[in-house]
Amino acid sequence: MAIGTREKSARARSRRFYCARSPVHSPAVGSDIDESSLLASIGLRNWSVERHLRSGGEPTWLVRPAGPASELLVVKKKRDYLSESEFLAHCAVHRRLADAGGPVPALPGEVPSNPVRGADGALYEMWEWTPGRTPGLAAPDLRDLGAALAEFHLLAASALDGVELQHQEPHDRFDKARFHLPLLAEGLAARGADRHRALTAELADARQRARTSEAPPDVVLHGDPCPGNVLLTRAGRAVLVDLDDVHRGPAVSDLAWSLISVGAVVPEGDGFRESWDRPAFEAVLEGYQSRRPLSRTEHEVLPCWIVASLCCAATDQLYDYGWKISTEDLPAECDKVLALAEPDNLPARSVHFG
Fold it and tell me: In its keyword annotation, does this UniProt entry include Transferase (predicted)?
């Protein structure tokens, strides 16, 4: 099928944006490069690694320049599951949000290009280090989380203009849940087949109800706005980090994920609560609506997206290259998810929407 004029124009804008704002240099690729040489290859000569924030095949470093300067930068390598086009698009969104003063880490002004290809052939993004802490379960922290997410949605309205996102994996929460449920079925095996059928039915029912309602407009989504991806700075501002899952979709997708992250998932652990933490749920929702009140349409479909998020988390929360809990405990965890997804149990029904 021929590409329409609008799509051609978008691709042209995307190419101009990357060429004008974020050129990707390609130094010679080395097979065994030490950290100082790698930093030099991305424009950070005489910088050193202060701390490893993430190790393994996708390192994230906190780096410091030589001498008395106190400036610190975070250097992050492209994650293996992202294509280069996805990574470039995420960096472009980050840049536009930072330029607009959005709730994201600031970008360094003196780095020659960002992102940049290192001597190892990989792409790296850099941003200014933001001292802070992750939100606790106190209501003020969670209201700040909700407000930052709303600000992200409002300021990012045009951040994807001319930027193409070609995801290799599903990002829509309904599609992602369907993608994950077969893995859950393997873990449950025959002893938990009834739970898998029940979760599949819950997801299908929620999807049908969402489809029969008026579709809310798409915004730019963070993709994983859980407390672990939020920093409360010393200046009292909430900042969203880890933009690896940025994509288009309805705002209630992000909001639902935040709500289950604080209200349904066991804090700092693996598994689900026996019942909703309603104060935590309502604090996030209150903070969000203080900046971006939900429309009537979003109010109507939010419970559907909460169910989709719960079904997605049924695997996402419990599996990471292997089950985090004993497979014998999976049926009980699924029972908790099914109870949390019951319409009469959803806190959204007891919250006033404007």
Answer: yes
11, pLDDT greater than 60:
no
- 300 within a domain of the structure (yes/no): yes
Give the pLDDT score at 32. 58
| 167 in the same domain as 144 | yes
For residues 120 and 110, give the distance between their C-alpha atoms in angstroms, rounded to a whole number: 22
* pLDDT recorded at residue 90: 87
pLDDT score, position 305: 95
Confidence of residue 159 (pLDDT cuts 50, 70, 90): low
- Whether residue 341 sits in one domain with residue 229: yes
Strands (DSSP E) contained in the chain are 47-54, 60-65, 73-77, 116-117, 123-128, 132-133, 218-221, 230-233, 238-240, 247-250
pLDDT digit string, tens, across residues 318-327: 887 788 888 9
* Spatial separation of the C-alpha atoms in residues 39 and 239, rounded to whole Å: 26
How much is the CA Rg of the chain, to the nearest whole Å?
A: 21
Contact 110, 118 (CB under 8 A): no
CA gap 279, 29 in Å, rounded:
52
Transcribe 102-131 into DSSP letters: -SSPPPPSS-SSSSEE-TTS-EEEEEE---
CATH label of the domain that carries residue 81: 3.30.200
In a domain, 326, yes or no: yes
CATH code at 184?
3.90.1200.10
Q: At a CB cut-off of 8 Å and minimum separation 6, what does 230 contact?
A: 134, 135, 145, 148, 238, 239, 240, 241
For residue 197 the two structure tokens come to 């059928």
> Would you tell me how many other CB atoms lie within 10 Å of the CB of residue 109?
7
Burial, 256: exposed, middle or buried (Cβ in 10 Å; 0-12, 13-18, 19+)? buried
2 lies in some domain: no
Which residue range forms the structural domain that includes residue 66? 27-129
What pLDDT does 354 receive?
43
Answer yes or no: do 49 and 123 share one domain.
yes
Dig out the tokens for 262 from the structure. Answer: 């604080």
As beta bridge partners, residue 48 has 64
